[in-house]
């Protein structure tokens, strides 16, 4: 009678022990799984944070992922879409300061028949100042370059810069070089986009006959290519060689030429009105030009640089704003004209506008405008720093006189800046002796 309860107690006791062991075993397994899960999650979160930091720092960024270009302050790196990725990345090589890529040359191994093909083996970029066509002084940059093949012809962006690239790559062929159809070649060709070519025009060099063109990679507005890095597979012996596989190019933001040119100013004669043979006053009409136009004094390379700037996204307002600040800071009281550029308004720093005006020269007198203006560029307003506008005006030349009218004009690189500041000189008849000098703003 006493045995059954003992057995029950024993069974109950034994069952509790078994249940406890099973629970502990399962708990330990769950704990290990939880720890593993937490470790994996932590690594994943750290990786996400690292990737976020890389992209937010601008180390590798794709233009289509950036909506607010105006807020961009860092350079970016373009990378070809990964089709194959054999080999190691070589070092980055950069253009010298103030220069940008404007040409390329490829090292290509010709078709090897039944032997191992590698196609593209190296890329060289040629760096020059923006707008220059003097490629004899260009600086060559390249990353890792493999041993096979020969350097081909050099192609140039004529008076332009490289603004992106496109790589031709062959997908993995799934075999070794011992079977021709399975021979891998990696990258086969390259296109570079040039700022001077319309509608996204490019230069192309196809080194190998295999593969397809990957998606174009382009710099942001106001940027050009300034560095290169390539992924290159070294010789693998009896294996399948592929040489160059991928490309990265760095895009650098160009400096606003309106901010960096060297500002000067001078008096520019508008009109000479001779009334020395008459005793009656003569009304003379002249063209007044106000604002900014391309300088006739600038060299071809300087004008080309201006074209590069506009081609890659520098608007007139950006260039003129930099020009206005440059004049105010560096030509506040000109030694040639005395004009205060600091006070100049937006009516000057815009596209030039020409108007017609008149002035009167009395009989038997002489008037002229001085070749030194005394203009205060520091006081120049935004009415000057815009596209030039031409209007018509008049002045009266008295009888027996000669009048010459001049205007204060600033020059800075590719820009000529026409102000509303004028000087009229009355000259002694038959001489260049100044009788009276008048400075005025109109």
Automatic annotation (TrEMBL):
Gene3D superfamilies of this UniProt entry? Proaerolysin, chain A, domain 3, Vitelline membrane outer layer protein I (VOMI)
* One Gene Ontology cellular component annotation held by this UniProt entry: extracellular space
CDD domains cross-referenced by the UniProt entry: VMO-I
Q: Which InterPro entries match?
A: VOMI, VOMI_sf
Source taxon at top rank? Eukaryota
Show the PANTHER family listed in the entry: VITELLINE MEMBRANE OUTER LAYER 1 HOMOLOG A-RELATED, VITELLINE MEMBRANE OUTER LAYER PROTEIN I-RELATED
Q: Output this protein's name.
A: Vitelline membrane outer layer protein 1
Instruction: Please report the organism this UniProt entry assigns to the protein.
Output: Folsomia candida (Springtail)
Higher taxonomy = Eukaryota, Metazoa, Ecdysozoa, Arthropoda, Hexapoda
